[in-house]
Amino acid sequence: MIIQGEKSTPVRYLPFGDSGLLIELGDVIDMKTNCRVIALSDAILKANIQGIEELVPTYRSLLIRYDPQKISFEKLVHRAKDIEKAPMPTTRREGKRIIIPVIYGGEYGPDIGYVAKTHELTEELVIKLHSERQYRVYMIGFIAGFPYLGEVADEIATPRLETPRLKVPAGSIGIAEKQTGIYPCEAPGGWQIIGRTTIRLFNPAKRPPTPLEAGDRVRFKSISENEYNALTRE
Amino acid sequence: MTTIMRSLKVVKPGLFTTVQDRGRGGYLKYGVPLSGAMDQFSLVAANCLVGNDSNAACLETTLIGPELEVLREMQIAVTGGNCEPKINEASVSMWHTLTVQRNDLVSFGRMQSGCRAYLAMRGGIDAPSLLGSRSTYVRGGFGGVNGRQLKMGDLIEGFEAPLSSNEYSMSEELIPQLTNHITAHVILGPQADMFTEEGITTFLSNQYVVTYESDRMGYRLEGPLITHKEKADIVSDALLPGAIQVPKSGKPIIVMRDAQTTGGYPKIAVAITPDISMLGQAKPNDTLEFCEITLEKAHEKIEEYNRLMNNLSHTLIRS
Fold this sequence. Notes:
- The structure holds two protein chains of two kinds.
- Chain A folds into two domains: 12-85, Gyrase A, domain 2 (2-Layer Sandwich), CATH 3.30.1360; 97-233, Cyclophilin-like (Cyclophilin).
- In chain A, 24% of the residues lie in helices and 29% in strands.
- Chain A has five helices and 13 strands.
- Chain A has a seven-stranded mixed beta barrel. A four-stranded antiparallel β-sheet of chain A has the order 1-2-4-3, with helices on one face. A two-stranded antiparallel sheet of chain A has the order 8-11.
- In chain A, a hairpin with a 6-residue loop joins strand 6 and strand 7 (147-150).
- The radius of gyration of chain A is 19 Å and the shape is elongated.
- Chain A starts with 11 loop residues before the first strand and ends with a helix.
- Mean pLDDT of chain A is 92; it is low at 1-7.
- Chain B folds into two domains: 4-173, no CATH class; 181-309, Cyclophilin.
- In chain B, 14% of the residues lie in helices and 33% in strands.
- Chain B has helices spanning 40-49, 197-205, 273-279, 295-310, 312-315; strands at 4-12, 18-20, 58-62, 67-70, 74-82, 85-87, 90-91, 98-100, 105-108, 113-121, 125-126, 155-159, 168-169, 181-188, 207-214, 218-222, 237-238, 243-245, 253-255, 262-263, 267-271, 287-292, 317-318.
- In chain B, the strands form five sheets. A seven-stranded antiparallel β-sheet of chain B has the order 7-6-9-4-1-12-11, with no helix packed on it.
- In chain B, a hairpin with a 3-residue loop joins strand 15 and strand 16 (218-222).
- The radius of gyration of chain B is 20 Å and the shape is globular.
- Chain B starts with a strand and ends with a strand.
- The mean pLDDT of chain B is 96.
- At the A-B interface, strand 2, strand 3 and strand 4 of A face strand 17, strand 20, strand 21 and helix 4 of B.
C-alpha cells in the first residue's frame, strides 16, 4: 500500500512542553491515519536520531519525547519533516497476529445482555459479530498494556456505561462505541464488559512488558467455560 | 556482589509512602507512565547527601510521614517538603546527612510546607528493578514494595555501603523555598487552539486552587472556567507529566508522573520540566498560577536546572 498522496489534513508539528514534539496526522479514528502514524513512527525509529528518548504512536498522532540538550526542537522538526515527506516504504511492518481466547457472557461478561438488547440481537449473535473480525491495535494507553482495538461492527457498537465501575476484573473484554479493548489488570472502567480472557497481557518483568503494540492484529476466539477453566489452571 | 541488608521496618506507614527513583522512560507506548519522584530535585539532593547515585531509590512521603524503626547503623538524609523529621523524638535537620543507629525511631511531624519529603539511605533502597526503575506505580501494581504504598510491618531493604566519614549539608540558597503558592511556567499547546482567546487569558491571569482530588496521577484544579471554542474532546493522544488538560467542565487538570499515558481532553499548555518538580510539592488548597514562557527560554531553564542537579554533590557543605 502506498500512503503518499493520500494526505487529507495538513500535518501539524506542535511543541508538547519543553521535551515533546507532537506530530498530528489527523483528528479521526481511522485505519488510514493510524497506518500513517505507525509507518512514521517506524521510519523515525529506524533513522536513529540522537536525542530522541521515545516514540508514542496513538490513533492519529505521534509524540516524540526528546532531550532538548541533545537535539533542538527546530532540528527535530526538520528531521521528522524530511522523514514524513519521503515516500513511505511500500512494504511495511505487517504487525503480529494474536488470538485471544475469550469466555463470553455470564459472570465474565455482565454487559453482554445490555449490548444485545440495545441492538435487538441475541447474545450468540453479539459473540459471533465480536469474534469474527480481525481488529487492529490502534494504540496502547489508559493503563499499562491496555490495547485500543478497532473497529467493531456497527451492529454491536455501544456507548460506555453511564456510571463507570470502580473495579473491572483483569482480562475483561469491553466495548466502547466502535472500539473494543482488554483490561490487562483490575482497574476502574466504563466499557461494556462482554467477556474475559485468561491471557496475561501485562508483565512488568518482561521487556517488552506486553505482547501487543500499535499496528498488531488481534482476533478473539470464543471458548467454553471448561476450556476457560483449563486455561486458568495452566 | 553488593550485600542486601534489612534496613528499616515500617511501624506506621504514613498517609501515602512509596519507593521512588527518577522513574522509567521508554515504555509510554506500552501504556507505562514515567512514574518516579514527584519532586525530582529533592530526590537527587537526598541521594547526593548520602553519597548515592542520583537515581537511587528513596522513600517518598506524602503530607503525613511514616514511623520507621532503624534495623542497622546507616546514614540517611531527608529533603523535600518541610516535614520536621525526628530521631527518637528529637528534631533533626533536613537537607543534611544523618547517622542513625539500630533501634532508632525515625518519625516526621506535620508537613509545614510542601507536600512530599524524600528519605534516602546510603547505598540506596533495594526493590526489584522493573522496566529500568524501582519506582512504585500503584495503579499498575508493580515496582517498589509489591507495587503498593507502604504498610505496617513492611521491611525496607537496602544495599550495604560503608559509612562515610563525612557528613554534608545543602547550602541554604539551594534549598527550595516552598510556600502555598506556586507559579509554574508553561508552554502553550499542543491544543491551545481549541480554546477561545478569552479562555487562554483566563487560564494565564488567574489563580487556581489544588483540590483534594489530587495524587501522583494528577491534580484537579478549581478556579475561573476556561472556555473551549467548540469541542471539549479530542481523539485520544499521548500525555506527559506537566500537561494541563481541560475537560468540558472548564476546570483544568494537571497531569503528574503516574498519569495514564493517553487522554481525550485538549491540553491548553504544558508546564516546563523544572517546574513540574515544584508542582510535585503542591498540596490541596495551595494556589497555582501559570505564566507563559517561550520554548527557547524553557530550554535555557532546563540547562540551568540540569547543571544544578549534575553539580549538586560539588556544592554540598562538609560539616
